[in-house]
Amino acid sequence: MKNKILITVFALVLALPAAAQFRTIAEAHEIRLSEIRLPQSDSGTIAFKACDDCPYLTKRVGADTQWMINGNSVGLRKFRAGIARIVERKEVWATVLHHLEEDRVTQVAITVPEDND
Predict the structure, then answer these.
(1) What pLDDT is attached to residue 98?
(2) Would you place residue 113 in the very low, low, confident or very high pLDDT band (cuts 50, 70, 90)?
(3) How far apart are the C-alpha atoms of 35 and 110, rounded to whole Å?
(4) Residue of 2, 27, 67, 79 with fewest CB within 10 Å of its CB?
């Protein structure tokens, strides 16, 4: 019995450093389309509200930022054109992926409902 307890304690002690190494690298925000201000160029800034009562956050985007519509990667110009057709902007949500260490947005993804074209 004593050996089982010692082995268990030893295994837990070995597992602690591995658990301490986990850290958050990016946050994904679900944002209403009406609460997003898109950049004008590939290396501009995007502004969005993380919650209804939150102030706007402004984050950098770059040429490597992914713009996704319905799972397909498109350029910023096509992304802007694609969401411009959406009538009910408060009913459509986008996912904004914010890389914390680089403090920039790496991906913006949206699923456009067919009845909202």
Answers:
(1) 95
(2) confident
(3) 13
(4) 2
Distance CA 87, CA 79 (A): 15
Round to whole Å and give the CA distance between 106 and 67.
9
Compute the Cα dihedral for 114, 73, 27, 96 and give only its sign: negative
Distance of alpha carbon 75 from the chain centroid: 17
**Cα(76)–Cα(68) distance, integer angstroms:** 9
pLDDT at 29: 92
Whole-number Å distance between alpha carbons of 32 and 114: 17
Other C-beta atoms closer than 10 Å to the C-beta of 75 total 11
